[in-house]
Design a protein that fits this description.
The protein has 14 helices and seven strands. The chain is α/β, with parallel strands linked by helices and 305 residues long. The protein folds into two domains: 104 residues, no CATH class; 181 residues, Rossmann fold. Helix 9 links the parallel strand 1 and strand 2. Helix 1 runs antiparallel to helix 2 and helix 2 runs antiparallel to helix 3. The radius of gyration is 21 Å and the shape is globular. The model has no long low-confidence stretch (mean pLDDT 96).
Length: 305
């Protein structure tokens, strides 16, 4: 699959040479595109059992690990890729102190690509959702599931104006919740450490006017995601809103994430993501499914009758 040219080089060699020449913009983008094509051509079994290992062992892999965004995903200091620190990398696009000049240049491209745009759009979209609910409901009660650092509230006009009721920020990562408590704990936000499973097996928390979980479903198998959707929906007040989201199978960064970041998502099509709420259909006032402007993430918004 890693076809060699007449000169004996692969596209990985060419990308490596380009990066060593400091041609970061073109070659990081070309790498993402070619990895997605290679993944599609190879099929899931060969990709996972053989190609990912070979890609990561290429000298290009060591160079890419100078990028702190890539490196943190591989290291998983909190036990999983995509932690709140990594999301802050995507939001702020500021590499941590000690990053090499070359690592910072690669970081600029890996956080600035179309997947990065989708994550930043997601934060701003959630802020707009919060603001919209606050216009319809006086001092709405809100639950954010797998909240991370809850950065969307920093972009919410309703939150800044004191127009929200209690906000419950739920996450299993105590480090994320420490940041939430430190920055937002005095402003009506309650940080709750709990697993997602606890939302399924208990009746704690609620009812709410808005519940959203924008990054969690990427890690959930279908049966659990369907059950969680049911249990979150049950916690809504009449007229309340539930939003959940999922990365699409053809998302721009998938090949790079899997090969060089060891970051694997449970991706779903629009139809598959929407189907997670099919059992709720008779209880819905409305359901809306749509894809973000960068064609990486699908959103489903449910309104309870």
């Amino acid at each position: 699959m890693l076809t060699r040219s007449p000169t004996g080089t692969t596209f990985l060699d060419e990308i490596l040479e380009g990066l060593l020449r400091r041609e970061f913009v073109h070659h990081i983008d070309a790498l993402a595109v070619q990895l997605n094509a290679l993944r599609q051509e190879a099929g899931p079994e060969i990709w996972r059992s053989d190609l990912i290992f070979r890609l990561r062992e290429h000298p290009l892999g060591a160079l890419l690990r100078e990028c702190p965004y890539t490196h943190r995903a591989l290291q998983k200091p909190r036990g999983y890729a995509g932690d709140a620190v990594m999301l802050d990398y995507l939001y702020e696009r500021i590499p941590p102190e000690g990053t090499s000049e070359r690592g910072a240049a690669i970081f600029e491209e890996t956080t600035g690509n179309r997947n990065g745009h989708s994550v930043r759009f997601r934060r701003d979209h959630l802020a707009q959702l919060v603001d919209g609910v606050a216009q319809m409901t006086s001092f709405p009660h809100i639950l954010s599931v797998a909240c991370g650092h809850l950065r969307e509230l920093e972009h919410s006009k309703a939150f800044a104006a004191g127009q929200l009721g209690p906000v419950t920020a739920l996450d299993q990562d105590p480090h994320s919740l420490e940041t939430v408590h430190a920055h937002l704990g005095t402003r009506g936000v309650q940080a709750v450490q709990a697993s997602v499973k606890s939302l399924v097996v208990s009746n704690e928390h609620g009812p709410f006017d808005l519940i959203y979980s924008a990054g969690l479903y990427d890690y959930l198998p279908d049966d659990f995601a369907r059950t969680l959707t049911r249990r979150l929906f049950d916690r809504l007040n009449p007229g309340g809103t539930l939003l959940y989201a999922n990365f699409l199978p053809e998302n721009y960064g998938r090949g790079y994430m899997e090969a060089f970041m060891d970051w694997h998502l449970m991706v779903r099509t629009l139809e598959e993501t929407q189907a997670l709420s099919d059992p709720l259909e008779v209880e819905l006032a409305s359901r809306w499914a749509y894809v973000d402007p960068f064609e990486n993430v699908v959103y489903v918004v449910l309104t309870k009758a």
